[in-house]
């Protein structure tokens, strides 16, 4: 090929490229399109969801199962009451019919004898597993055991879960995790003085431990083995280890993995651990799956409060979470998480309350209240950064820090509560309409007042926003009234994928929505015409010379 031919070839290539790039449309999107947050694969075909699926409305009712009184739960997605009953009585003390209404294994929770003869079991055997959510499947280009934290958002997560049976997914046609397998790791409740055996059966592909943060425990178990769950004694895949405790001190504590703590903690391996006061006939709800409302409070809590809620705040770095979505080989995951990923350069993209971000927090994290109630709130911060939890319309009182009760004279009443990473506080929230404790009935927001806390990868409203809702302002499906227009916008994958304007509906859409379509600029039309004409001319000249 001569230099002349080469030059012509290059010119042809450049002209064709310019024509493709400059081809004008009759209309084009105005303005600059922001970088997209592409949502992950899903079984949903529509970008818009119903605010409440209303899958199990019968679970919301107050009921008695296996002799266990279960409080009503008006939320859209209440916990399975059969799992509540099993969490109170133990899987060994319920009928097979009740057990089959759960996803719990037969040995997930074994209640032993009543050693102090006060009417409740004092020897407790708990079995936990490590479950991966939204991880890569080795069988294809899709995620498995999917668990969205908000519309279209499925970050990779690890959680502790009670030992389960059957399939991890809802059914044979689904890739969605069953209800037992979800974030956050369940709140675990035991009674002061109980002899508790917690066995980690590690069915995961990486080593893990359970560290009982703030819980009274000996350094060695009875066999002289590790009892502190530290990194030096990991439980490797396919192995199990039992931690033994007999806590003398009641309060709100934590548990978490202490293998490569920074990464595993941020991946979701943490949960609340509550030691209840020892009282007669005190059958506590050992697992509060998904946290949120405690449907069978302890004797001590019921003596002073009308309701109890567990509130666990978490954050996710999407760069860390994507590691398990881009590989299924444990060696690659270990390399990318342990050596390639730098925790000191981490960033928090997603902020969750009880395993969900807004608007999914409206499904299971609404605090439903009536007038003149006393509500107990246990709050834990497992984010990488501090939170500043603010309640609209109410001021609550701190009754305990890190599981230690505060004397009456040191109890602070505030509307913003600073909570450092791994710190816990207990609050007493009164709905007495006196201008201090409560300003009256409403749909009062509560959220992290650190500005990023109410965003999901930069989109607001998102993050850990939720509602303290008075019962008369919640509909029969547990969703807030008077919010139809907003719910129609935010229950959309396109909203959090940044494909939809925040005010895309209503009378002001033309002012605040997308700018719409405009004609392409004249320079683009002229440049396209010149490039196309030059190309045609060159082709004709070349064809004539060839003759």
Automatic annotation (TrEMBL):
<keyword id="KW-0479">Metal-binding</keyword>
<dbReference type="Pfam" id="PF07731">
    <property type="entry name" value="Cu-oxidase_2"/>
</dbReference>
<dbReference type="InterPro" id="IPR011706">
    <property type="entry name" value="Cu-oxidase_C"/>
</dbReference>
<feature type="transmembrane region" description="Helical">
    <location>
        <begin position="522"/>
        <end position="544"/>
    </location>
</feature>
<keyword id="KW-1133">Transmembrane helix</keyword>
<dbReference type="Pfam" id="PF07732">
    <property type="entry name" value="Cu-oxidase_3"/>
</dbReference>
<dbReference type="GO" id="GO:0016491">
    <property type="term" value="F:oxidoreductase activity"/>
</dbReference>
<protein>
    <submittedName>
        <fullName>Copper oxidase</fullName>
    </submittedName>
</protein>
<feature type="domain" description="Plastocyanin-like">
    <location>
        <begin position="339"/>
        <end position="450"/>
    </location>
</feature>
<keyword id="KW-0560">Oxidoreductase</keyword>
<keyword id="KW-0472">Membrane</keyword>
<dbReference type="GO" id="GO:0005507">
    <property type="term" value="F:copper ion binding"/>
</dbReference>
<keyword id="KW-0812">Transmembrane</keyword>
<dbReference type="InterPro" id="IPR045087">
    <property type="entry name" value="Cu-oxidase_fam"/>
</dbReference>
<feature type="domain" description="Plastocyanin-like">
    <location>
        <begin position="183"/>
        <end position="278"/>
    </location>
</feature>
<keyword id="KW-0186">Copper</keyword>
<dbReference type="InterPro" id="IPR008972">
    <property type="entry name" value="Cupredoxin"/>
</dbReference>
<dbReference type="InterPro" id="IPR011707">
    <property type="entry name" value="Cu-oxidase-like_N"/>
</dbReference>
């Amino acid at each position: 090929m001569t230099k002349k031919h080469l030059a012509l070839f290059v010119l042809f290539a450049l002209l064709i490229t310019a024509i493709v790039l400059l081809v004008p449309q009759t209309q084009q999107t105005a303005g600059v399109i922001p970088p997209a947050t592409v949502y992950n694969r899903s079984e949903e075909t529509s970008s818009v969801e119903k605010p409440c699926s209303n899958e199990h409305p019968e679970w919301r009712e107050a009921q008695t199962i296996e002799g266990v009184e279960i409080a009503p739960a008006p939320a859209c997605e209440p916990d399975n009451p059969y799992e509540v009953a099993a969490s109170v009585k133990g899987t060994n003390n319920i009928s097979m019919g009740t057990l089959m209404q759960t996803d719990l294994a037969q040995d997930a929770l074994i209640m032993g004898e009543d050693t102090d003869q006060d009417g409740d079991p004092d020897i407790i055997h708990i079995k936990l597993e490590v479950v991966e959510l939204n991880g890569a499947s080795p069988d294809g280009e899709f995620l498995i055991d999917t668990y969205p934290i908000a519309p279209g958002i499925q970050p990779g997560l690890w959680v502790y879960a009670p030992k389960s049976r059957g399939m991890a997914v809802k059914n044979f046609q689904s890739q969605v995790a069953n209800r037992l397998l979800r974030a956050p790791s369940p709140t675990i409740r035991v009674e002061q003085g109980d002899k508790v055996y917690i066995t980690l059966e590690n069915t995961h592909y990486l080593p893990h431990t359970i560290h009982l943060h703030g819980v009274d425990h000996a350094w060695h178990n009875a066999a002289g083995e590790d009892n502190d769950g530290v990194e030096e004694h990991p439980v490797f895949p396919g192995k199990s280890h039992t931690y033994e405790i007999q806590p003398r001190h009641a309060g709100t504590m934590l548990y978490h993995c202490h293998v490569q703590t920074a990464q595993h903690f941020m991946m979701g391996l943490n949960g609340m651990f509550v030691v209840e006061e020892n009282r007669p006939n005190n059958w506590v709800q050992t697992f509060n799956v998904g946290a949120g409302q405690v449907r069978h409070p302890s004797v001590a809590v019921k003596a002073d409060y009308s309701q109890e809620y567990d509130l666990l705040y978490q954050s996710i770095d999407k760069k860390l979470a994507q590691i398990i979505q881009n590989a299924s080989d444990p060696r690659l995951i270990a390399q990318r998480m342990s050596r390639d990923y730098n925790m000191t350069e981490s960033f928090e993209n997603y902020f969750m309350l009880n395993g969900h971000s807004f608007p999914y927090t409206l499904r299971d994290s609404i605090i439903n209240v009536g007038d003149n109630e006393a509500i107990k709130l246990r709050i834990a911060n497992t984010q990488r950064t501090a939170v500043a939890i603010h309640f609209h319309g109410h001021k609550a009182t701190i009754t305990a820090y890190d599981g230690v009760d505060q004397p009456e004279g040191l109890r602070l009443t505030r509307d913003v509560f600073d909570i450092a990473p791994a710190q816990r506080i207990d609050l007493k929230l009164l709905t007495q309409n006196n201008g201090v404790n409560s300003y009256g009935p409403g749909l009062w927001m509560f959220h992290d007042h650190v500005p990023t806390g109410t965003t999901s990868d930069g989109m607001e409203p998102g993050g850990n926003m939720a509602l303290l809702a008075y019962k008369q302002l919640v509909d029969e499906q547990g969703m807030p009234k008077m919010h139809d227009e907003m719910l129609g916008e935010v229950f959309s994958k396109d909203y959090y994928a940044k494909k939809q304007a925040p005010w895309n509906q209503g009378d002001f859409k033309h002012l605040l929505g997308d700018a719409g379509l405009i004609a392409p600029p004249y320079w683009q039309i002229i440049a396209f015409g010149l490039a196309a004409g030059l190309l045609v001319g060159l082709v004709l000249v070349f064809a004539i010379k060839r003759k």
